[in-house]
Amino acid sequence: MLILFLAVSAGMISPSNGSGPPSSSAATWLGSGNGSYVSAFYVLGDSSVDCGDNSLFYPFLHGDLSLHPCSDGSDKTLVPHFLAEKMGIQNTPSFYAQSGSIASLFRGLNFGSAEATILNFGGWKFQSLNQQLRQVLETFQLVQLHLTEESAHEFMDSSIIYLSFGKDDYIEFFLRNSSGITHKFTGQEFARVLVDQMIDAVMSLYNANARKIICTGILPLGCTPRLRWEQVNSTSSGGKCAEEVNELILEYNSMLEGRIFDLKAELPDAKIVFCNMYQGILEVITRPKRHGFDDVETACCGLGQEGMRIGCLSTEMACKAESAHVWWDLYNPTQAINRLLAESAWSGQELRSICRPVDIQELVLNSAPH
């Protein structure tokens, strides 16, 4: 409880003063117009969930020279932003930007941190999976202390947790190698280590009474502008994507989905959804015109050949037709792609069946009281 004690002492979180949610019912109808029923939406992850707001030193210490993983700095740019809107949640504030009241914790928080990794590579700049997990578990403890046992059970059962990690672990594996990680593991071993950590995180969330969890796979990193640039400047054969990179990503995604499937038998009261973002983006890259995109290779905001060398230093560098691009910067999709992924993950439309065994809308509707 150290983080929560410090947060309360520093005024980031105020003790309950009667202004929090009523103890008779922790969950609230959120009026999204689709009958959804969600108490809170808690988000953990990397730049796929965070625009840099949760990384205190990101503007100074970012490793990939891209200040804007979010295309326009708005709060509706990334997949969880759009999903929160679908759930009827207007905003899921970042952990370091919360309002300071217990009541603010009851709608959810975004613990994500740009460039966060599953493994702790010994750095201190960005929040790893375990650091974010510790923050969310302590938040759960604080929330549940302010509820009756029955209300706490109802609250946790109708809350949704979203995890999106792994991209920066593989960037470390393929490019930075600052910790010598490529000399420690084969590709298969590396995937297994990462998946083990993710499953441990899911189990920790379950043991903290979370019952509805969304895990996303890693996007096709081999098709991102920077990895394509590395391929062009290596001895690898040319092509739209670095297939050797994508093969390792596929191995991780397949292993994670399989382990999540196995959890169904072990945790019958849990509803865990795997969303295959790799499948969704690759479908767009393969058939771009069908989905309204023109450019599947170059970065909308970046420097060097096709924006592949240096990330987005200023939004003034950005292309004028962002919505026609798949990639915003070195590794991140555009807002248009994120919206498409969120729409498809929510309802299963357009990019079909990217979330399994159910789409997110069904997961949310299963949160409704009976």
How would you describe this structure in keywords?
single chain, 370 residues, alpha/beta, Rossmann fold, two-stranded parallel sheet, 39% helix
What name does the CATH topology carry? Rossmann fold
How do the SSEs run, as a string of H and E?
HEHHHHHEHHEHHEHEEHEH
Examine the secondary-structure arrangement and name the CATH architecture: 3-Layer(aba) Sandwich
- Rg to the nearest angstrom? 20 Å
Give the overall form: globular
| Strand arrangement in the largest pleated sheet | 1-2-3-4-7
Number of helices: 13
Helix content: 25-40%
For the residues shown, what is the average pLDDT?
82
- Structural class from helices and strands? alpha/beta
Report the sheet with the most strands, covering strand number, pairing sense and barrel closure.
5 strands, mixed
Total number of β-strand segments? Answer: 7
The structural domain count equals: 1
Query: Which percent range describes the beta-strand content?
Result: 5-15%
In whole angstroms, the N-to-C terminal distance is: 34 Å
Low-confidence segments: 1-36
For the record, what CATH class applies? Answer: Alpha Beta
Short description:
With 370 residues, the chain is α/β, with parallel strands linked by helices. The protein has helices at residues 2-10, 58-61, 79-87, 102-105, 129-145, 149-157, 167-176, 187-207, 225-232, 243-266, 277-286, 335-347, 360-365, and strands at residues 41-45, 160-164, 212-216, 271-275, 295-299, 325-327, 355-356. It has a five-stranded mixed sheet.
